[in-house]
Amino acid sequence: MSLIKKALERAKKERKTSLKVWQEEAEEVRASSQEIRPPIYSQTRCVQVDHEKLIDRKVFSILEKDEVADQYKLLRTMVLNRTRPVGHNTIEITSFKEGEGKSLTCVNLAITLAKESRQNVLLVDMDLRRPSIHSILGIDPKPGLRDYFLHGIALKDMLIHPGDIERLTVLPAGGRMDNSSEIIGSHGMENLIRELKGRYQDRYIIFDAPALATCSDPLILSSHVDAILLVARANHTTAEDITSGMRLLNDKDILGIVLNDSQVRRGGAY
Ligand SMILES: Nc1ncnc2c1ncn2[C@@H]1O[C@H](COP(=O)(O)OP(=O)(O)O)[C@@H](O)[C@H]1O
Ligand SMILES: [Mg+2]
Asked: Domain holding 65: CATH number?
């Protein structure tokens, strides 16, 4: 049986008990949370996002009561439990190949952290070759990181706050960059991360990165973040993909592997 299939079987068996345990843990995390004030969006552009369209694009984390949203709450709890005690707040989300659900996981995790856990969250579209956070959220892609790297535009001029998702701020990619590795490997990237970490110390910063197999961007980025979350997709990611990905990231702090698209419920997903 493949690694993914085994994980699936195990996940199915454990789902009922683990959901209860995770829900209890989530309550504890919430109860022990120190209230962090929401940011004051005096300079950040506020835009409205269309909830119906978000649901069409599988952003189920905006729903109050939903089985898929519950799975993202479990993921959120795992992330909080593994990062908060050690003071980690910068997380890269990557996968082995394209199309495994990185961007969708980023958006759903960011919304769940912001809405449910009252964490301030900055979601950064660092997949400069195939940016998609803006299209999932239905927001303007520009200006964004491309303009920051090429034209030195200020961070505050690129940030977007989706109005009705309190505590969430988005830094879009600003357009495609086929030479992203040169940029990401440059001092520009170091400066960006330093600036983000310095300015937004009270926020979780989630980076949507390209796939490990496609370019060196995710590896370069991995040296600048506290931890990495990997996404694997059922019936898509192979055991070999996982092995080679883990080998590439061997000395990095890996929070875990999200098994995406694993459960056939609600018409097939997760
Ligand atoms: N669990 C899922 N169920 C259904 N569709 C999904 C699921 N995860 C991802 N998708 C779809 O698969 C495509 C690729 O997902 P995406 O998050 O863009 O992957 P990546 O960022 O890894 O390339 C998108 O069209 C997305 O809506
Ligand atoms: Mg993507």
From this structure: 3.40.50.300
* Any domain includes 74: yes
Containing structural domain, residue 168: 3-260
Q: Which ligand is nearest to the CA of 125?
A: 2
- Which of 56, 58, 133, 206 maximizes ligand 1 atoms within 8 Å of its Cβ, making it the mutation to test the pocket? 58
**pLDDT tens digits, residue range 21-79?**
555 555 555 555 556 777 877 778 999 999 999 999 999 999 988 999 999 999 999 99
Ligand 1, residue 58: give the atom nearest the CA. 27
Instruction: Give 210 Cα–ligand 2 centroid separation in angstroms.
Output: 6
pLDDT band at 268 (very low <50, low <70, confident <90, very high): very low
Please state the atom number of ligand 1 nearest to the C-alpha of residue 261: 1
H/E segment holding residue 167: none
Residue 84 pLDDT exceeds 60: yes
Question: Per the structure, how many domains does the chain have?
Answer: 1
Ligand nearest to the CA of 173: 2
Whether the Cβ atoms of residue 118 and residue 32 lie closer than 8 Å to each other: no
Task: Report d(CA 89, CA 203) in Å as an integer.
Answer: 7
Average pLDDT score, the chain? 87
**Pair of tokens at residue 180:** 């992203």
Verify whether ligand 1 is closer than 6 Å to residue 132 (CB atom): yes
Assess whether pLDDT exceeds 80 at residue 3: no
Q: Can you tell me the distance from the alpha carbon of 47 to that of 136, in angstroms, rounded to the nearest whole number? A: 14
Return the closest-CA partner of residue 221 out of 207, 202, 200: 207
Residue 267: inside a domain: no
